[in-house]
Design goal:
Elements lengths: L10 H27 L12 H22 L4 H17 L6 H17 L2 H25 L6
Helix pairs in contact: 1-2, 1-4, 2-3, 3-4
Length: 148
């Protein structure tokens, strides 16, 4: 079951997705661009570390964007993955005290909270239950039971 119609997706999920996507830009893409350009934005990073940051930040940011988009389709794995990302972000936040990083952290936490609200959980359950019912219908069409 694809719950991709905007009317079917609760506002909390849509806003959570927007927070996660904005967080990916603020927390993932902009710092990488600034690091590559050699612009210091409140954190001290040695020049030798920049390629390693880019090598990790780009794929992780892409994964965050993909998972955020999958939230709208009711993908439970995406909610779990993004929750793990929020936990890692909170644990790493004391290491980076720039306003840019803290803004990204606020967006990350807002996205995490919104995707676990009761209305969001009902959406995920509804999508999961719909997918299970659809699979059961397909199975019963392929394997009809013998009648009396």
């Amino acid at each position: 079951m694809d719950s991709g119609a905007p009317g079917d997706i609760p506002a909390a999920i849509r806003i959570s997705t927007a927070c996660w996507l904005t967080s990916a830009v603020v927390f993932g893409i902009v710092p990488v661009i600034l690091d590559v350009a050699g612009i210091k934005f409140g954190q001290s990073m040695p020049d030798w570390a920049v390629p390693f940051i880019v090598a990790f930040a780009v794929p992780l940011t892409a994964l965050q964007v993909w998972a955020a988009v999958q939230l709208q389709h009711g993908a439970g794995w995406a909610r779990l993955l993004l929750t793990a990302a929020a936990v890692v972000s909170v644990l790493a936040a004391p290491l980076a005290q720039s306003a840019l990083i803290l803004a990204g952290l606020v967006l990350t936490l807002a996205g995490a909270v919104l995707m676990w609200l009761p209305v969001s959980s009902r959406h995920f359950l509804s999508v999961r239950d719909g997918a299970q019912a659809e699979a059961l219908n397909r199975h019963s069409e392929r394997c009809p039971t013998a009648g009396p």
